[in-house]
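Review session, final week

We close the course with one last complete record, chosen because it touches almost every idea we covered. It is Phosphatidylglycerol--prolipoprotein diacylglyceryl transferase, a protein from Marinobacter vinifirmus with 262 residues. Go through it on your own first, then we will talk.
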Amino acid sequence: MLQHPQFDPVAIAIGPLKIHWYGLTYLLGFAAGWWLGRLRTRKPWSPLHEEQVGDMLFYLALGVILGGRFGYVVFYNFDTFLADPLWLLRVWEGGMSFHGGLLGVMLAMWWFGRKTGAGFWKIADFVAPLVPVGLGAGRIGNFINGELWGKPTDVSWGMVFPQAPDSLARHPSQLYQFALEGVVLFALLWWFSSKPRPKMAVSGLFLVGYGSFRFLTEFVRQPDPQLGYLAFDWLTMGQVLSTPMIAAGAALMILAYRRNAQ
């Protein structure tokens, strides 16, 4: 049985100014996305030039932060927001929804694609392989904060999280998600997108990959206490939101290759 290291959530404190690890993980994710995006612009089929990557990330950052926070409020914690509206602004305390962030990013990609003339799908296919880096960084932030822990377990790598309401060893589900949503999904998408693919195919694979990995890890992740299980003593909100992602991703890939074959 392992003990959570109990990291100080504040990375840097200068007087009243406090910089949290959670915020730094987001910054790291965007920085890595900027670097990888510039690498992708060197592909002959890239819809963007190097100097456009920074502008694109600005739009995406707004989409992630605003959409992620909005999604967490609507999907997971609307009652908390009604009781304390200012909680919406305290992003450093954690509380971001991937599915809400995805909606925000989709809106940002639509706007940027319209602005540049590249269109939504070319931007989406360009961005998809960059996203897992940010997802992985965010899961490390969750682990540092000691939040979103897994279910009780007797496996040898089970970990006791002091923030949990008991002293039980639990799955370090944040690290599982880092490995699958971050490392594995990035490797899969980077490899798949290294050659020209039909329009929508890369985006479709991202949706299938993330949705599948998230659905699986929800089986060992403790459900949000304010929601619990939605049905069958195992179905979580994360699985409900991931199911249409998988279906939509599969449909996009089928449509992409059918159109390419015509």
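Two points worth writing down before the exam:
The chain has nine helices and five strands.
The two ends are 57 Å apart (CA to CA).
Good luck, everyone.
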